[in-house]
Amino acid sequence: MNPKEEQTNSEVTKLENESSIEKQKDENNINEEIGNNKLNEKSIVIEDEYKFGWSSYSEITNGRFAMIGFLAIILIELFSQQSFLKWAGIL
User: Fold this and answer.
1) What is the distance between the alpha carbons of residues 73 and 21, in angstroms, rounded to a whole number?
2) The whole model's pTM is what?
3) Whose CB has fewer CB within 10 Å in the chain, the N or C terminal residue?
């Protein structure tokens, strides 16, 4: 081999090493971003507390109570063998 070929081979090896180091940095950066997302998700959960007015907590609570009420109406109709409106004396 002549000196030029050896020099180009060493340059290629050097470039390969640099690209593998860049890939590792990218993977570390991705891992750090994932860690930051997990931190953000935790902070979102902590912020989800009762607030007066329109909030996600209020909507979830109202939805759960609505499901309980709907289930109660269905059970009343099943056990009384009449419609809820008749049972409640509305009709």
Assistant:
1) 65
2) 0.44
3) N
